[in-house]
Specification:
heterodimer; A: mainly alpha; about 90% helix; B: mainly alpha; 8 helices
Chain lengths: ~160, ~270
């Protein structure tokens, strides 16, 4: 346990080692560490951002989906309404058309009946006049009884 | 072991506690402990060189395993320094702490090498009769480190507070500014300044020296017979395992004290 010049040499060596570490070791490694820390922090922040964006996007997509569903159901309801309207309208049209046809047919029938009756009556009147004129040919002068004949004819008509 | 004819406990311990020396001048001071110097320089150059090799290839991307290990070490030291030292620690204090921790740890760790086997290796491979493996069990090393830190604390105290501020602090703290108290303040501060490097260095030295002595005593036990050999081996293994803790702890304590002393020099009372 004797103090000697070894002490001084060791102190010099120690100082040199400290100088070496402070000059060549510490700053470079510390820089690397700090850069990596920065990178990791950036990466984590980016990940966080991505997550948030994903959340936002999924929220938006669900909103859009909901809206689309709602619109679809609206459209379906509208279409159903429209279809029933069309059916109703068609029914209405068909009824009107049918009535029109029926009315036309009735009118025609009436007209036919009337004209048939008319011609029948004329024929009956003609036949009656013919019969009467055949009966009366001898006794009645057509010229004398023309007034009478005409009045009968008029009555039959 | 030594080739001396007479072998008893005294010569055995003396043999293991004798440094390899060269004289570089007249008087007992101008002597170099070559074993201490060469071992410590070798360990310092190799360890810091390895760290430097890693640092030169350091990348801020994905680190290699060695780089990750060095980074762990550096971040561990940096955390310790951060809690104690409030200032620009990257300029000096943190790198100094790293140097102290790595170097002192490795110097302490030389204690793990079995002394008698290493003595045989030094004797028969390198032809060195006296060679002590553990530089921190040499009081010169621990005093050199403690005194270097001590000088640095004075340097930083003067640099931060100015020479006047430093002297004011010496005479005016801790009791007060009253001129009557100046002698007591100065006395207390002087005691503090003397006791700091003493306790700093002797703590490390004492632990390592005692560790070495206990290994020697256990080794001597082995010379008494078979029972002694068995118990010596078991206890030696136990002591070596416990010594792992001491080696790391003492290196850590030495570093922390250095950091504390340096931070105290930066702060005014």
């Amino acid at each position: 346990m004797n103090i000697n010049f070894t002490l001084v040499s060791q102190a010099i060596a120690f100082s040199l080692f400290i100088w070496f570490t402070a000059r060549f070791v510490w700053p470079y490694l510390l820089r690397a560490i700090e850069e990596r820390q920065q990178k990791i922090a950036d990466g984590l922040a980016a990940g966080e951002r991505g997550k948030k964006e994903l959340e936002l996007a999924s929220q938006r997509s669900s909103e859009v989906l909901k809206e689309a569903k709602q619109r679809a159901s609206e459209i379906i309801i509208q279409a159903e309404k429209r279809a029933s309207d069309i059916i109703e309208e068609a029914k209405q049209n068909a009824r009107i058309e049918g009535e029109k046809i029926i009315a036309g047919a009735k009118a025609e029938i009436q007209h036919e009946t009337f004209s048939a009756r008319e011609s029948l009556r004329q024929q009956v009147a003609g036949l009656a006049v013919q019969g009467a004129s055949k009966i009366l040919r001898r006794e009645v002068n057509a010229k004398v009884h023309a007034d009478l004949l005409a009045s009968i004819e008029a009555e039959l008509k | 072991m030594s080739s001396e004819a007479e072998l008893n406990p005294t010569t055995y311990i003396q043999h293991h506690l004798t440094n390899h020396t060269i004289s570089i001048g007249d008087g007992s001071f101008w002597v170099l402990h070559t074993d201490t110097l060469i071992t410590s320089l070798l360990l310092g150059v190799v360890s810091l060189g390895l760290i430097w090799m890693v640092v030169r290839k350091a990348t801020s991307g994905v680190p290699s395993k060695t780089q990750a290990f060095v980074e762990l070490l550096i971040e561990f030291i940096d955390d310790q320094v951060k809690t104690t030292f409030h200032g620009d620690r990257h300029a000096f204090v943190a790198p100094a702490a790293l140097t102290i921790f790595v170097w002192v740890f490795l110097l302490n760790a030389m204690d793990f090498l079995p002394i008698d086997i290493m003595a045989w290796v030094y004797e028969h491979v390198f032809g060195l009769h006296n060679w002590r493996s553990v530089p921190t069990a040499d009081v010169n090393t621990t005093f050199a480190l403690a005194l270097a830190i001590w000088i640095l604390t004075i340097y930083f105290a003067i640099k931060v507070k100015g020479f006047g501020g430093w002297v004011t602090e010496l005479v005016c703290t801790p009791f007060g500014k009253n001129p009557l108290l100046w002698p007591f303040n100065l006395l207390l501060n002087l005691i503090e300044y003397i006791s700091k490097p003493l306790s700093h260095s002797l703590r490390l030295f004492g632990n390592m020296y005692a560790g070495e002595i206990i290994f020697m005593l256990l080794g001597m036990w082995a010379a008494t017979g078979v029972t002694g050999t068995i118990f010596g081996a078991i206890l030696g293994a136990g002591w070596a395992i416990f010594h792992i803790l001491i080696v790391i702890l003492q290196a850590f304590i030495f570093m922390m004290l250095a950091v504390v002393y340096l931070s105290m020099a930066h702060e005014s009372h």
